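Take a look at the protein record below and tell me what you see:
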Amino acid sequence: MEVAMIGLGRMGMNMARRLLGGGHEVVVYNRTMDKTIQMEKEGASGTASLEDLIVKLLPPRVMWMMLPAGPVVDEQVEILSSLLSPGDILIDGGNSYYKDDIRRSERLKPTGIHYMDAGVSGGIWGLKEGYCLMAGGNETDFKHVEPLLKTLAPRDGYLYCGPIGAGHFVKMAHNGIEYGLMEAYGEGFSLLNASPYSQSLNFSKVAHLWNQGSVVRSWLLELLETAFEKDPRLSEIRGYVEDSGEGRWTVQQAIETGVPAPVIALSLFQRFRSREGDSFSDRVLAALRREFGGHAVVTAVKKEG
């Protein structure tokens, strides 16, 4: 089916590639033209403006935004509200706050433009492995775009979660859990690093071992194995760990609903603390974010002598 991809960053570009590989007709738009030109070479139809994007699609159009959460999404929604037609479907696949989805859906309701939210997980590995997709919105709209979801996701890798905001709410909880898991791995390997057995342990092999039938096995451990293969003691990076918003929203939601979430809350605060020091556990977190999401790391300062 036809689909437009707006935003060709780390996720959007590879999602467009996976859709092309699945036989869909993909029209792409990016703020700068270099990535658009690259996607044209790979079989997509490129556009230099949102106006041109609309013309290249037959109604009912499906527009998928992969943009940074916040004002950028609001700006695009505002522009598209005057360009799209009643019945067209606008999907926000970025890491938006679920309450923003509800607000944007209400903004578009008088125009007849349908709005969906899609939580997307998979990072830079999604092109090969597929993306885990959590969709919110009208169920009829979900059925309409389901062929796209089937192509983007691995088997059983997408779910209709409920009305507007449900997809991003589930993704928010998912990322909160991710914060806690990463913190636990970081603390565990920090204990190993400070132990009397540190010099005899190969951390890459430990991570590999724990993925062989252990109850703590996971894809994160696979990525950590790779990170330790590249840099056995993560000495080339600083333990400076960013957060992209979802952890804060998860903790805020826990406070609003009175749900105890101490592990997630503490893992978020640990990220704040990481910006004031350089512990081994924080280097583990930074390395993991680089491996699964391509997130930038702060390079360690090499000592002279």
Observations:
- The chain has a mean pLDDT of 96.
- The radius of gyration is 21 Å.
- The longest strand covers residues 114-121.
